[in-house]
Please model this.
Amino acid sequence: MRRILGIALAVLLLGGVVAVALAGGDKTPPTATKTVKVKGVIGSEKSEYFRDPDVVKALADKGYIVKTETSGSWAMDQLALKEFDFAFPGSSEPAPEIEAAAGVKGAQTTKPFFSPLVVIVRSNAAKVLADNNLAKMTGKNSGTLLMGPYLKAAGEDRKWQQLSGSAAYAELTGTVFIKTTDPATSNSGALFLAATSNVANGNSVVSDQAAIDRTAPLMQKLISVQGALEPSTDDPFRAFISGSGEPLILAYESQVASLLQQKPGTGAADNMVVLYPDTTVNSPHTFVPISENAKELGSLLANDPKLRELAVRHGFRPQNGVPEFTAATAAHAAYLNPELTGIRQVSAPTVKILMALAARAKG
Model:
């Protein structure tokens, strides 16, 4: 009897094991985060951010593989946007045109981060500008470009040789001008016109044809003196860092802050002075979702702590992220103005007005 009971019990136990195996053996492990591949068109100033292996990993951890191509922000609406899942221009002004061209008018745009414009100069040029009251130094490597006096000098076709103290520096010759990008296609060039036209228009946003006519002659001087115009800020910035290029280069603060954080001690910025124009238009990089696949990506870029940290490492200021930016760049405070103290921030004209100004400026 005991033997029979033992055999019966063994059969029951074996049956239980088989039942469990049948019930759960074909179950797969919990599904990992689904990976979505998206393709976007971005301003070149964000290329290094999206190429950063840490950014690639952070996005992959959230289920995204992101491929990008670059374009001037103001030319994105001319692209075959249906080929992209998102567009990411350098400011909010081109976004409505991009939405309309992509057929997604009213899309839920996001502004993950921004960067003000700066003018980078070498120490000799900065000293001459300051000695002639065109700039005000706040430290060895930082200062403010005084837009009123600078534009007056530009309107008079002032040459470096006419500025007191310039004779000591053989490299400072020819007309004083800031090297910008093409204002008809590039965000930084367009916003430079937005800021300078504001000052030229009596510290008021250009909003009608009369104001365009009033400011256009000066805008044309600012642009025509440069010769060939660059499509993005990347090439002029790299030329400056390598020791070539013009004495005054328009750049994004993000380019400077990224260089300082990622290449400390290399000497790349030893002779660089960062001048913040005393009147500026901030540049909120605006994420425009085109396909459903990218609908949540903008919010992720804006709010994910790791991606915000990486944006700061690449020099960008997260929205409402002054403390993050200040903490990350504390070692390089001699170059930067985290609080944008003393800077007047103005609105840009409408796209129609700004493009009309750009057309007039280019002649």
